[in-house]
Amino acid sequence: MLTIGAVARQTGLKIPTIRFYEAEGLLPAPPRTSSGRRLYGDGHVRRLAFIRHARQLGFELPQIRNLLELADHPERPCGDADAIAAENLQAVQARLKQLRALERELKRMVDACATGRAGRCRIIEVLGDHALCAVDAH
Amino acid sequence: MLTIGAVARQTGLKIPTIRFYEAEGLLPAPPRTSSGRRLYGDGHVRRLAFIRHARQLGFELPQIRNLLELADHPERPCGDADAIAAENLQAVQARLKQLRALERELKRMVDACATGRAGRCRIIEVLGDHALCAVDAH
DNA sequence: GATACATCCTCTAGTTACTAGAGGATCAAG
DNA sequence: CTTGATCCTCTAGTAACTAGAGGATGTATC
Description:
2 copies of one chain form a homodimer.
Chain A: H1 4-11, H2 15-23, H3 42-56, H4 61-72, H5 78-114, H6 123-128
The structure holds a DNA duplex.
């Protein structure tokens, strides 16, 4: 059983952020010591690491709530879970496309630099292109 | 030359957001009509699309400012540009790793669902793992 | 057992990155 | 020349944290 400070160190989250996620219902309220201090287990830590990474990947809290729901109840009417998974898969794949394009361009710049020639930077064009943006180009 | 509304429609950004990016110095102030309305060109639109996509990929405004600097001055002392590019490349590759893991898992779930068997959801494990998180696991 | 320093608690307020709305001017169509 | 859409600035609200005040508890040391 870990204190909130230990969990913060392990996950890289700030202490108030952990309490915030609990208040938001993303993390189940952990048991407390007799004096009221929170005690976390491995499940909590994994869930928090998941939330952190998902946030770093640009998912918003409602989407993360959504994914956690899916993880928590995979046995529900298959259609529901499938719809959520499929929808999120699309969002993930759109992000992947753009990130790969950005990666290519940054690599090209680093390489160009290594060989002396500066060459111009095309990252704006690369990420400015809506063709790669399958999400909501509307 | 486009009005701010047209640019908003093209980029998917809200009008106040465009003005906000201008105030933050991420977008150069465009010329104005005699009555004070903003008029944008293609460069502005591309730059805004870049900002939008970068934000969707989880980059924060300071990082985006950083990348825009790189794009705006690729001829600067090569070391600088290279350092920025290399640093961002690392961040991009870490995100790619996690997104690919998440993609695999969501695909697996959709597939499992298609063939009838529900199977349990491992997305938390997949993104909860710090091994994939090269950025700042500290 | 007393002192001291870290860590925890709750609660309020501040920050970042938008987003909505008020109040008013300007433009484009009919 | 009026009507409706669009623009302007400015202030205030929201989401997702983040920092700090004020106070209790835990732990290590003498």
